[in-house]
User: Fold Type II transport protein GspH from Heliophilum fasciatum.
Amino acid sequence: MLAARQVQADFLWARDQAVAQRASYTLIFRRNTANYSVLRVNQTLRQTVLENGIKIAQTTFNAGTLWQDRFIFTEDGRARLPGMGGTVTLTDGRGRSRYVVISRSGRVRIDRQAPRSDQEL
Assistant:
């Protein structure tokens, strides 16, 4: 699924920019759509629409809070919110899923299976 690689690339770009610019970068995901954005402070830097038929099913970022579905990198490239990292779940029209998993240290990987709740992100 090329969309998972696109999300991974944007996470890595935002992480690298946070370090280079010494500023927080935020990714905002819109559930049940194909859209997400990358922001620096309140300025939108990138708006991405995923390939045809791919949707953002869910994220594990800050559930039930004002910051739900947002991931923030600190100036050193680590996770600020959520502090433990998390997962973006992408689905296609056939119900297949890919999981973009980001650790608290900023490592990003793609998986075909959802991480277990007891598994280190």
In short: The longest helix spans residues 2-21. Residues 6 and 38 are 13 Å apart (CA to CA). The radius of gyration is 13 Å.
